[in-house]
């Protein structure tokens, strides 16, 4: 439709010129207007105005680097699943713990009574269930009998032996109350302990047995009592062989006389040099 309107406008513009030419007002053109002129006019009308040159575009910005994704922290471990506790089992465990606590209290009070040699309290605590051979309440794990032997409380030790205290309870270094009685030379306590003792080879942390200890300390009566009870020790026999006590040497089967040390042969004394001879007429 736009083309038709344009054509009409062009025709209207050409028509007055043609009329004037016929009337003689204007010089007559040699060539009449043709459709080519009309088409050029239409093209001129239809052609859009020239576009302005596009502004130079800026260089594209480099793409922004994406920030590294933060690694999420590991999930905390799930709490352990606690199995349901059987009420009967829990109650039994509580009773057991309470009973153990009662025993610990009794044994601690018993050891304290022995330290004070309170015979009345000792007997009362034994009736309540205190363990006469308990060693859990002492740092070195000494029983009451061992502690009495270590500290020289012989009256307490003899009393505890009448109450059936064991001379064979080992401490944290393997030493028994009998070992301590030998070590501290309590002969009367050793004699009573040997009536019930089963362990005659008790030794300390250095491996020194009590028979060897008795020989070293020249405890003749205690060494004889241990031998009579059946104690044996190669180390004690070797020590007895070199003992200066005739009785100890004899009880181990050696001569009562200490052999004199072998004399070291001395080097021959060189003779003095002879004086020089003077020759007459020299």
TrEMBL record:
Which stretches does UniProt call biased (Pro residues)? Answer: 47-86
Q: Keywords assigned by UniProt?
A: ANK repeat, Repeat, Signal
- State the protein's name: ANKRD50 protein
Q: Where is the composition biased (Low complexity)?
A: 259-269
Specify the superkingdom. Eukaryota
Q: Which residue positions does the secretion signal occupy? A: 1-20
Q: Where is this region: Disordered?
A: 20-86, 259-282
């Amino acid at each position: 439709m736009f083309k038709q309107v344009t054509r009409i406008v062009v025709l209207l513009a050409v028509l007055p010129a043609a009329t004037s030419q016929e009337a003689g007002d204007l010089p007559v053109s040699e060539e009449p207007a043709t459709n080519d002129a009309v088409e050029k006019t239409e093209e001129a009308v239809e052609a859009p105005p020239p576009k302005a040159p596009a502004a130079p575009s800026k260089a594209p910005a480099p793409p922004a680097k994406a920030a590294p994704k933060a690694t999420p922290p590991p999930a905390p471990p799930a709490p352990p699943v606690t199995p349901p506790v059987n009420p009967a089992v829990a109650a039994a465990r509580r009773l057991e713990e309470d009973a153990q606590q009662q025993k610990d209290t009794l044994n601690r009070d018993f050891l304290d009574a022995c330290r004070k040699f309170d015979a009345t309290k000792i007997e009362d605590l034994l009736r309540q269930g205190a363990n006469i051979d308990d060693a859990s309440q002492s740092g070195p794990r000494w029983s009451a009998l061992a502690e009495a032997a270590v500290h020289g409380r012989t009256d307490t030790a003899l009393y505890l032996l009448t109450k059936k205290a064991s001379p064979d309870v080992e401490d944290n270094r393997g030493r028994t109350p009998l070992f301590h009685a030998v070590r501290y030379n309590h002969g009367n306590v050793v004699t009573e302990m040997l009536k019930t003792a089963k362990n005659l080879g008790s030794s300390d942390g250095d491996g020194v047995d009590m028979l060897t200890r008795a020989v070293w300390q020249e405890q003749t009566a205690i060494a004889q009592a241990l031998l009579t009870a059946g104690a044996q020790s190669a180390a004690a026999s070797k020590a007895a062989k070199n003992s200066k006590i005739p009785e100890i040497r004899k009880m181990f089967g050696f001569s009562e006389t200490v052999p004199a040390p072998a004399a070291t042969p001395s080097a021959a004394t060189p003779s003095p040099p002879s004086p020089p001879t003077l020759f007459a007429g020299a």
